[in-house]
Amino acid sequence: MDIHHLQAFVASHDNFEIRVITHAGSSFCQVEVEDLEGKRDLLTRAGKPMLFRALDDVYLELKRAGIHRAYLVQHAPEDEVVGRQAHYHDSLTSRIPLAF
User: Fold this and answer.
1) Where does the chain have alpha helices with state H?
2) Closest Cα partner for 41 from 98, 74, 3, 77?
3) For residue 96, what pLDDT is reported?
4) Which segments in the chain show pLDDT lower than 50?
5) Is the CATH number of domain 3-87 3.40.390?
6) pLDDT at residue number 46
7) What is the pLDDT of residues 19-40, one digit of tens each?
8) Dist. CA 30–CA 55, nearest whole Å
9) CB-based contact 11:66 (threshold 8 Å)
10) C-beta separation of 60 from 29 below 8 A
11) Distance of alpha carbon 32 from alpha carbon 19, whole angstroms
């Protein structure tokens, strides 16, 4: 989903979640959109997932799309290495609310 599709999506939907995903050991962030039906899309540019170097960059892009709230999610690959299910999509305690 590119930024123009995200703007149209925000205008026509009222029940969705935006996640800013950070990966342990990396300074980059990605933005994921999940709708009411559970369909997930990454924010893309030219067909490739957008990578942000700082949360301020994410804030600016999401504000342009009309979004003022999101969740920050830390992806820890250790969970998958030791055989645990990744829990960051389900647990509210693993997400930090962001408002901008």
Assistant:
1) 3-12, 55-64, 78-81
2) 3
3) 85
4) none
5) no
6) 93
7) 998 876 778 899 999 988 889 9
8) 10
9) yes
10) no
11) 5
